[in-house]
Amino acid sequence: MLGSLGEADDALQDAWLRADRADTAEVENPSGWLTTVVARVCLNMLRARDTRREEPLDDSTGTGPVAVAPLSGSRGADPAEEAQLADAVGIALLIVLDTLGPAERLAFVLHDMFDVPFDDIAAMLDKTPAATRQLASRARRRVRGVPAPHADLPRRRRAVDAYLAATRGGDFDALVSLLHPDVVLHADAAVVPTPEPFSVTGVERVAGGAMASAGRALSTAAVLVDGGVGLAMAEHGRLRVVLRFTFADDGLITAIDVIAEPERLNDLDITGIG
Q1: Structural domain of residue 187, as residue ranges?
Q2: What is the pLDDT of residues 115-165, one digit of tens each?
Q3: Based on C-alpha coordinates, what's the Rg of the chain?
Q4: Pairing relationship of beta strands 238-247 and 253-259 according to DSSP bridges
Q5: Residue ending a domain, choose from 144, 161, 187
Q6: What are phi and psi of 235, to 5 degrees?
Q7: What is the pLDDT of residues 161-200, one digit of tens each?
Q8: What stretch of H or E contains 105?
Q9: By CB neighbour count within 10 A (0-12 exposed, 13-18 middle, 19+ buried), where does 110 fall?
């Protein structure tokens, strides 16, 4: 639900305190009652997270052209455990979940992942079962993705997958082979805090910057960005950075737009990819 072990611990502790203070003598279904308590705690945390979505990123400490600030995560979260969680749940799923509204996210996770009936979820959200079913349906379409009309989508997916694999593996030559000689990389101020829009041109400079992002590539997955294949990076279940690609007719990457400003991320249409 939260995409972060640290925040999950916080939610469980909050739910435990609420349960400890409550009069449970007349609770006929303790499991269902506790599920409702935890779900509502998570819903409140997700709504609070949305209100903080416009906060700027930390000051950048990276040196590469696509270096992104090391972002603070959840309290007490072990990076290795968070990586294990992302691997188990699926990085792409965590990324797409972060684009859903709190109610959509709760309806989808509880119903599609844990088989909680819509009638029970509706009570948690103070909505009708029909409205809750619609929330889950919208979320399901976003998670599963939608067909993209471009005929080159499969080839571009292979190129983006190869770009990610080369970045993760530190394979400079493989990365160069995917880039057009005159490739240009653009990055917004949340990635590289400069007064003017940042850009760098040339296959070696762009590939070198990607090599500096090898660590972050472990938390990155292919997704559909505004209908085209792109990459998105998540930390602790939060969408942090999106790479949007432009391709030449021969399939080489001619431009990369690195997006990390919260308002720009919010404007992107990000869906799952099959």
Answers
A1: 153-271
A2: 999 999 999 999 999 999 999 998 888 887 755 555 678 889 999 999 999
A3: 20
A4: antiparallel
A5: 144
A6: -130, 125
A7: 999 999 999 999 999 999 999 999 999 988 888 877 789 9
A8: helix 102-108
A9: buried
